[in-house]
Amino acid sequence: MAANIKFDLDLCSSCKTCVDACFIDVIRWDDKKEQPFAAYPEDCVLCLGCEEACPAQCIEVLPAAVSAAPQ
Amino acid sequence: MTKLEDLGEVISTDVLVAGSGIAGFPAAIKAKETSPEKDVLIVDKATVGWAGLAPKGGGVFWCIAPEDDLDKFVEYHVKNIGYYLNDQELLYLNAKETYGAAQQLAEWGVKVQRDAQGKLLTGHLLSSRWSHAGADLDMISLLSARARKSGVKLLSKVQIVELLKEGNRIVGAVGFNVIDGRFYIIKAKSTILATGGLNRTAAMFTPHYGEGVAAAYQAGAEMRNAEFGFLIHPRVKGGGNIPNLAFNIHNAAGEYMAEKYMPEVLKEEIYDTAILTPAFVVGVFNEMREGPIRVDMSRTGPERGGPPPELNWNRPKQTSYFTRLRKLSKYSRPAPPNPEAEIGLAAGCSPIRVDHEMKTSLEGLWAIGDTSYNGSAWGGAVCMAPGRMRGSPLMIGLLGGLRSGPAAARAASQAGSPQINYDEVKRLKDEMFAPLQSSQGLLPQDAIQELDGIVSPVENGFSRTKDRMEKVLSRIQGVRQKCSQLYAKDSHGLMKCNEAKSMAVCLEIVFNAALARTESRAYHYREDYPERDDKNWLKWIIVKQEAGKTVLSTEPVPIDKYKFKP
Lengths: 71, 566
Ligand SMILES: Cc1cc2nc3c(=O)[nH]c(=O)nc-3n(C[C@H](O)[C@H](O)[C@H](O)COP(=O)(O)OP(=O)(O)OC[C@H]3O[C@@H](n4cnc5c(N)ncnc54)[C@H](O)[C@@H]3O)c2cc1C
Ligand code: SF4
Ligand code: SF4
Hints:
The structure holds two protein chains of two kinds. Chain A is α+β, with helices and mostly antiparallel strands. Chain A has two helices and four strands. A two-stranded antiparallel sheet of chain A has the order 1-4. In chain A, strands 2-3 form a two-stranded antiparallel sheet. The longest helix of chain A has 5 residues, at 17-21. Chain A is globular and about 30 Å long. The termini of chain A are far apart. By secondary structure, chain B is α/β, with parallel strands linked by helices. In chain B, 34% of the residues lie in helices and 18% in strands. The interface between A and B is medium-sized, with 26 and 29 residues. One iron/sulfur cluster binds next to α1 of chain A.
């Protein structure tokens, strides 16, 4: 499986919760930029655990082939 | 002088718990609370407190209520679910302890559902004969908080790769940090494996490549009931999700398959895919060979799965998470009307053999939760979790944790300080990090895909013959050998390498056991031995590794001392 993992960094509070919440190490922390990034999106299993955990609700995970959620 | 410290980070603990799910946490908390003077460390390759399957699951667990009939439960389970390969004593013990275990969970702060008087809220789900209870999905984070408060130490993002041995005793484990690649040597007087089994049911079972199982096997631990591990279920051919479709299948002649092959289940109005009988699965499989089988949606059973209204569960986390998951259905291809169906299967196993305190055949090693769901034999000849009883995995994990924690802590009091051999650790380290030395070869994802491809065709994984299984086994062994060519760019890739290797080892265990069992029982279906053979096969098959070689033996089920006999 693979995913398109988007972070709305304007809303992100740099809390790192998403790094902890991802149980298979897809999301990593960029120490320099102090923000999360999808390091291994090809391994994402679309469990949506990161979306659910993000206190700022600024993560959107979509299947790799999809670029935006349907309206 | 060579020092272990030169090789990596050395940690010493009395009790090491590998895996921080619904099995690992109760083990760690109970070990610490019963022996506060002992050091207890819980390690996970993910983040402790977030890891494990429980936060992603249904949160429903098996809980025999005081008003349930225990004998009836055990009798049904032995006759119709485990087919007499159960350890009936453990089955009784588990059933008796479910209610107290649920109360313990609640005492630790988990939001177990209660009624207005504070009593555990139990009830029969629409699909089930037995009582269940429920908890909200934040159970792991709450257990983590409790563990921390009790003084359990937590170590995240460290993948355990091999167990350390001193003679025949397990004295800890080695692994590495999946972020920065640091090597860890964990010396432990007692080690509890709670790392899950091999489970290829669905993507969300992804951390389940059976690493703990493979490590235990390679250290010489006995495996039991491995041949039954695979989960078999009908599905839409070509993809598309139809809930409960097993109860809507018709053969080419229009006959209703559930009525033809499991009328007893229909009569009781149980519409639960976990309850699909082997007669039904084999029947449908054989019908498929005569002509296409189809899903006819005009025939539907009652809605399944949710709690009955009187349970009135209030689980905001579960509601929120499952609502979110629903968005994904927008992207999956809808099934066409009345589509063709087929038998699907998911590879898996959880075969570490344990006794009633969850101790393995090796000194110093316990195995709980999905590592030993089959190997403990409480459920008999069932597939991996959930076996054939919904809600059993969470409860089995919890019970195993509650028992193994105090036992492991007690044993740590008797054990001397582990003596770890430097050369052995150096060898393990070199082997573990070898994939980082190459820039080409086999990618772990490709090895996993190849293994899936070998075992997932129904004629390889489910409908078994000697010839086909020998071929399958030799192909699995081929992949296992090729694993020496695995390469990884970084420590994340190294983690995947260990997952691929472990999966190959687990599948080898399954097919060695399946070849040995020359009869059909439960979902282990042999075309060349289609009948159940109680005369010759009321036996457990034990698989273990000795000096690098697979050794198989059988052990009679002590049926004479059990209450229920064929
Ligand atoms: C969608 C879904 C719904 C479910 N619904 C239910 C339900 O309603 N009721 C029920 O009873 N069961 C349910 N289950 C099954 C149940 O959740 C699991 O069987 C159970 O949680 C397993 O517990 P465990 O502690 O044995 O393993 P896990 O929860 O998988 O924990 C194992 C831990 O070990 C870690 N680990 C693995 N390998 C290593 C390693 N090499 N080194 C270090 N750490 C490692 C993993 O990261 C993981 O955290 C469901 C599962 C899913 C996915
Ligand atoms: S959806 Fe799941 S697997 Fe994918 S990045 Fe988020 S937490 Fe990780
Ligand atoms: S959880 Fe949300 S707010 Fe926190 S770091 Fe991740 S994206 Fe940012």
